[in-house]
Structures
1.
Amino acid sequence: MMGSGVFVLFFIGLLSFTTAEDITKDEGVLVLNKGNFKQAMDDNEFVLVEFYAPWCGHCKALAPEYVKAAAKLVEQESAIKLAKVDATEETELAEEHGVKGYPTLKFFRSGKPIEYNGGRQADDIVNWLLKKTGPPAKALTSVDEAKAFIGEKPVVIIGFFKDQTSEGAKQFLAAASATDDYPFAITSEDSLFSEYSVTGEGIVLFKDFDEGKNIYEGDITEEGVTQFVAANSLPLVVDFNHETASKIFGGEIKSHLLIFLSKEAGHYDSHLADAMKAAKAFKGQVLFVTINTDEEDHSRILEFFGMKKDEIPGLRIIKLEEDMAKYKPDKYDLSESGLTNFVQSFLDGKLKQHLLSEDLPEDWDKEPVKVLVASNFDEVVFNKENDVLVEFYAPWCGHCKQLAPIYDQLGEKYKDHETIIISKMDATANELEHTKIQSFPTLKLYKKETNEVVEYNGERTLEGLSKFMETGGVYGQAAPDIEDEEEIDEEGDVPAKDEL
């Protein structure tokens, strides 16, 4: 879900139900609507509800994992139920629960909702739900139980505490309760202390990759344990895919080195060993991520960074804060020393942000809608003699394509106006230091004399846009709290940080 905001949907029309309806199931998932929603909440203490749209790409990707999660809960004889609501049909229900994007998942405990913030894979969904409905850490009473627990998942954490009422144990359990992605266990049994060579209080993270396990050191605090798990629960170099995406971009480590490689060209064989060596020095500070550029699904990532296929193997560093900052090396050196120097320069604050820019077309002002790029943006837009409307668009965005003919008509209407300029900029290929665009299309009016910026949030019609211009940005202007929203294109795609 990209950037700092989410796409707001305005729900039109209300459906009326006078009697409760039967609750049906679709592959083990309850199908809810306005008529049976309350009944489902009354009948079940724990319900995870997905508000979805049939056309949404993210919803389609989630669907099979959601069904798998429901099946796993049935196998475990869990009282937790999974349900779904078609928010495009059940508009009143979606609005009632504050649905602002697709998919939205909410967990209801005795009818009271909390936001779901777990992963999108079946195991992640089940783990999150079990954490929210049971003890934060499983009690282990034998070596066999511990071995079975360790073998169940790629990453597990066990706390060894002779006194489970100690302050260290309390801090460990607090961290377990706050960490949804990985299972925790706790034990006081002497046989387990002996089996795993633990003396005194201890915490061990077991994993089926890299060094196999990590031992916690230092004072036991909730924050310390959380950071320990974040630093050690992913491989030194993690490959980006649908399963790892949420852990990469939703994790505690916000600085990432992205290594773009082609498996077909043998880049993984050539460069992965050096990446592993370099990553050890930055464990817990910078996450090393490989991206296979042969995957068709990853093509938009290259577009996002303005990279061409002939730049592979290539590098970028990103820093995830309110906005995403990107950094590019002077040259692509994927040796251990090259990677180390690039990352260290970033940590030392020696790198300047990398902003994308296209070359300025010679005929940029030939058509009624003027073409802006990063290099001519300030000169055109901040000219105080003109009111300048800018459409920030993405070439792949469905809503942008729908707006294009209307926007061209708007440009034609004002092509001879003395003080109004209609313009557009491909915001996926051009970035501005002073303006961050997080939704497509975004329409901003830069007012003459003051350069005040007003965002348009009215209907995307020639009449609506014309009124916006004629009223100096009063008609249809966006409320201040809407300016950071995101938009979903017709495939349900959001240009998101956790989607890279």
2.
Amino acid sequence: MSLDEQIKGTTEEVSGKAKEVKGTITDDHEAKAEGKLEGLTGKARKAVDDLKEKAEDVVDDVKEKFEKKD
């Protein structure tokens, strides 16, 4: 897991939620939508990083199995 990507994702989620709340309080629908989008972008960033890590683990497992056969 790339700590950098996880931090970026979490930062986007928190920032997005803050913007969303601000938009709700001020009745600013555009700010609310931007905040929601930023939060979802952060979640997506973290999910992609998780998938990348899992794919790397699978590749490593396959490499190990082939190395053991030799």
3.
Amino acid sequence: MAIDPPQTTRPSKTAAGGLTPKPSGPNKLFAQPDQQFGDFRDDLLRDGYAVIKGAVPRARADAYAEAMWTYLETFKNGGKGLGFRRDDPATYTEAHLPVINEKGMCSGYGVNHEDFAWGIRQEPGVVDAFAKVFDTDDLIVSFDAVNMALPGRKDLPANKPWPHQDQDPAKPEFRCLQGIVNLLPNGADDGGLIVCRGAHRLSEQFHREFSAFEKDPVFRWTQEWYGFSEAGLKWLEEHGGHGDDGPKCEWVKVECEPGDLLVWDSRTPHYNLSPRDGGARARFATYTCYMPAADASPADLARKRDAFEQTLGTTHWPNAVHVRDHNTPLKRQDGSTCPYSADNAPRKPVSLTERGFRLTGIPYIAAATTA
């Protein structure tokens, strides 16, 4: 089935409408004490993560997965591909693939702006979930990586645990909701997201108390990131599980089906797992994160516009706090530069619905500049 969104438009690079975004309303998550919603938001409040079943209809999820398989099989080389075949594990090697790291992430080659990536970002069931959390329909979206983890790869280093929060410890309030749209069956042994249930509720206390005696800090590659050391993980273990209503701080592997949306509070410690030994299923997923357009500054929106026009990727932060430097070459495991590293264009021009165009942030630029 076709996966391009209906009634698409291809906006000009300079288009901007001066729309004034509606900020978050009174029902934003964590805005009021004792909130109850009767849906996935209650899980988010309690556990720091939630699974929204069938956010993308199964037929469309299957079509996105098929598009990703086809992307790998036809990658570059004039659409002929580099020899990868989904039914031949012998081709699951770097020589036949784009650069995909040991965590399954691919973020070069304009893949962040491929049709399947934008199709998923524009799925109503995905966007609407974030609109509920932030209590506004005026959102912008990240141009994040995709995950194409293939089982049985011997040419990558082991994916070691890297528990972290994607949020500045000095800003302890709820600020960001991260998301993954899962596209293939994903069970206990298949690799994927693991979260520390309930630990978001201890985040402020952790950073207030633990920072005073932290002896082995983990390198922070951006300000909006914090890596947990062994001592930090021990603190969480010791402080979790006290009282019936307190956070248990237990690590949970999230299981899901094609089309499910996984969301988690950025304060929740998390990382991804590789398939267990003998696991035979691939993991396909896209990272989707939205925030209110009103929370982005004019400089943020300008930086985001430039990333969109150059089809560059960002981190999960939708305000483009960090944009991939296309001049930094993509390196293979042997240290050589991927010969397609400088080719940053997706296979087709980005195609958007009207709502999808608003997600780029471009229509809000004039209003933000004059606000």
4.
Amino acid sequence: MKQLHKQTSLSHRRDEEMTPSSSLSTAQTVATPPYSPKAPKHNRSLPRSINYLLREQRLLFILVGILIGSTFFIIQPTLSRISASDPGQPFLNNARSNNNAALFVSRVGRVPAGITSRRLRIVVTGGAGFVGSHLVDRLIERGNDVIVVDNFFTGRKENLKHLFGNPRFEMIRHDVVEPILLEVDQIYHLACPASPVHYKYNPVKTIISFFLLFLYLHCTALHFYLYIYTNVMGTLNMLGLAKRIGARFLLTSTSEVYGDPLEHPQKETYWGNVNPIGERSCYDEGKRTAETLTMDYHRGAGVEVRIARIFNTYGPRMCLDDGRVVSNFVAQAIRKQPLTVYGDGKQTRSFQYVSDLVNGLMALMDGEHIGPFNLGNPGEFTMLELAQVVKETIDSSATIAYKPNTADDPHMRKPDISKAKELLNWEPKISLREGLPLMVSDFRNRILNEDEGKGMK
């Protein structure tokens, strides 16, 4: 009983000790309201953004900026075309920088409005030569980056000295018979001796363009060196470069592929009448082989190619004594020498001014047709008629000296350019009587400087 009474009293004491805390907890519960979470804030980001734009005329500034940017992209192509055109230039160009833009669009597809062209990177082999240097001038003028590759066998640095220091121009002394690695968009392959004096001087180099074979067969004294040079190996190397980098390749072939033609005028479908073992065959057959290689690379490797068959061309920067009839006559007339006519002088040629040829080459490269295309002036002259025009232009008292005709000299040469007119929208604009004085002025200055260099007053 005592133990039970003790437990009861102890329990009663605990109840008394706990009573104040319970009362306090109850009081706190009455004084402090029950917890409740905060009401979620309403999303006011959209009204605040609109309010930010409308405050202090920010929306007006944004609209003005959009208008200025749109105006720039609309008028920029027009400004580019205006700046690229030069009404005072001597060249008559039918294929302007729009062709460059068309080429870019055709390669990469649709482009944003206002971006109609890009600067192409172009290599010109033989770019220090007569035609090559004029082509380089036009490409630089159009706004392209140009790399000239030349071994200066027939080219001259003087033809390009006015471009030294131009940031868009580079020149590499290199023979295309050896491979070269470049990153370019287009390749104009002009490298080859084109005049009779030069290609007859080294016919083996002319036909192939470098292949060295060294054999050492059990005898230290036996060394065989085989040099096979320009038209084939040079073309092969440049076609290989075009294949590796995906560049478009243009081969400058020649009307000599027609040989002494039995068809007159000559169309591109004519296969020619060429003597494969004659004195001129190194050049004729070399170019025919270069055309074959070009088409084989196109069919077999998918290389984009273009082929131009160039007829007689004249103009400033021709070599003074390269054996071509126009330069021969002009230099002889200025030097007061008789004009040399081979044979009876009744063989015919067609003569185009160099700017017309450059226009044709650029139209062909930037167009979508492979060719071959005849690029020449269909105006036909006998050698005696040409001599008469030179006499009228330079010295009416000049005389004519007849010499035996050269081997395999074509009797007739006149291009049919209907294909180029239709597909390239190209035809020559400058007649012989208009272009010859421009060439005469250049020859006079150079012959005068040449004579002064020799001590002749």
